[in-house]
Structure formats: structure tokens, C-alpha cells
């Protein structure tokens, strides 16, 4: 059911410093900072030959990554995102398997303008999983 790895997301305490490190020390193709108010984050995408890195920084008072950064003040890998062809079908299959889909199960539009859903990290070996319909 899952396809390509769309991105690996890293929560960071200083977005511009992280972007500068990827641009300078790692010589990567770093995009602009984009506010995502519906998701409570500001993101910067880094394009690699085979996938993307999503740098995440909290936006607003109720950011879903605020607690994660409190627990991991130096930052850390926050989630991985797999592509799926049919997000409602994937959601129904996962729910039937006993996995918890976060929120009310209604996909939101993600940073690439495509529908996304998240799966509880406790149901996937301690890893928060995002699914993006492509
Ligand atoms: C830009 C849009 C989009 C895209 O297109 O790419 C994005 O990527 S948006 C990214 C940000 N959005 C989200 O993360 C939405 C989904 N996340 C959530 O709903 C919450 O963050 C959460 C996963 C339910 C966690 O909620 P929180 O309140 O922060 O923590 P809890 O205390 O409830 O956590 C319970 C439990 O899970 C552990 N945990 C939390 N976050 C992670 C994580 N990222 N990876 C692994 N484990 C995580 C947390 O430590 C708790 O464990 P215990 O301490 O053992 O109880
Ligand atoms: Co993401």
C-alpha cells in the first residue's frame, strides 16, 4: 500500500540556523520558509535526489510539535511521510488493522497541496507516520 518515502521531518529549535547548515555545510538545495497555519508549523523543504527533508518549527500557541521540542530541545526526527495512492482507502485499512489515525480521520491539505493524515507513533514502533496522497 505505501509507496515512496516523501520526506523525513526534523523538528528544529532554530529554523534559519538549520537551513543555513544544510545549505552551507551540507551543500543542499534548500527552499524558502513557508508558514502552515492549519498545521501549526513553519516548514522549509530540502530537496535531495531521492527524497526530501522537512525542517519544522512551531507556529502559533497550539503547535503539535511544541511538546516534542520541549522534550528534545536540540531537535530531532519528528516524522516520516510515505506516499499512498488512495488516502481514504489507506485510512480505512489502517483503522481496520487497529492503528490510530490522528484527529477525526478527515485528511487535511499538507504542505504540497495534497491530502495528508497522521498515524499515532505508539502504533508504529515509536515513529509518527504521515501519509500523503499523490
Ligand atoms: C506542514 C504540513 C505537514 C506536511 O505536509 O508535511 C506536516 O508535516 S505537519 C507536522 C506537524 N503535525 C503533526 O505532527 C500532526 C500530528 N501530530 C499530533 O497529533 C501530535 O503531535 C501527537 C503525535 C499526537 C503527539 O501529541 P503531543 O501532545 O505532542 O504528545 P503526547 O504527550 O500526546 O504524546 C504521546 C506519546 O507519543 C510520543 N510522541 C509524541 N510525538 C512523537 C513523535 N513525533 N515521534 C515519536 N513519539 C512521539 C510522546 O513522547 C508520548 O510518549 P510517552 O512519553 O511514552 O507517553
Ligand atoms: Co510532514
From TrEMBL:
<feature type="domain" description="VOC">
    <location>
        <begin position="4"/>
        <end position="134"/>
    </location>
</feature>
<dbReference type="GO" id="GO:0046872">
    <property type="term" value="F:metal ion binding"/>
</dbReference>
<protein>
    <recommendedName>
        <fullName>methylmalonyl-CoA epimerase</fullName>
        <ecNumber>5.1.99.1</ecNumber>
    </recommendedName>
</protein>
<dbReference type="Pfam" id="PF13669">
    <property type="entry name" value="Glyoxalase_4"/>
</dbReference>
<keyword id="KW-0479">Metal-binding</keyword>
<dbReference type="InterPro" id="IPR037523">
    <property type="entry name" value="VOC_core"/>
</dbReference>
<dbReference type="InterPro" id="IPR029068">
    <property type="entry name" value="Glyas_Bleomycin-R_OHBP_Dase"/>
</dbReference>
<dbReference type="GO" id="GO:0046491">
    <property type="term" value="P:L-methylmalonyl-CoA metabolic process"/>
</dbReference>
<dbReference type="GO" id="GO:0004493">
    <property type="term" value="F:methylmalonyl-CoA epimerase activity"/>
</dbReference>
<keyword id="KW-0170">Cobalt</keyword>
<keyword id="KW-0413">Isomerase</keyword>
<comment type="similarity">
    <text>Belongs to the methylmalonyl-CoA epimerase family.</text>
</comment>
<dbReference type="InterPro" id="IPR017515">
    <property type="entry name" value="MeMalonyl-CoA_epimerase"/>
</dbReference>
<dbReference type="InterPro" id="IPR051785">
    <property type="entry name" value="MMCE/EMCE_epimerase"/>
</dbReference>
Amino acid at each position: 500500500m505505501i509507496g515512496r518515502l516523501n520526506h523525513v521531518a526534523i523538528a528544529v529549535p532554530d529554523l534559519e540556523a538549520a537551513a543555513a547548515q544544510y545549505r552551507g555545510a551540507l551543500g543542499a538545495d534548500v527552499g524558502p520558509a513557508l508558514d502552515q497555519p492549519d498545521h501549526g508549523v513553519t516548514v522549509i523543504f530540502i530537496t535531495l535526489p531521492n527524497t526530501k527533508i522537512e525542517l519544522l518549527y512551531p507556529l502559533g500557541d497550539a503547535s503539535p510539535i511544541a511538546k516534542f521540542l520541549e522534550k528534545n530541545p536540540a531537535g530531532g526526527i519528528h516524522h516520516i511521510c510515505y506516499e499512498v495512492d488512495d488516502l481514504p482507502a489507506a485510512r480505512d485499512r489502517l483503522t481496520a488493522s487497529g492503528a490510530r489515525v490522528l484527529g477525526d480521520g478527515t485528511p487535511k491539505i499538507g504542505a504540497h497541496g495534497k491530502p495528508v493524515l497522521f498515524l499515532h507513533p505508539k502504533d508504529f514502533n515509536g515513529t509518527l507516520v504521515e501519509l500523503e496522497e499523490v
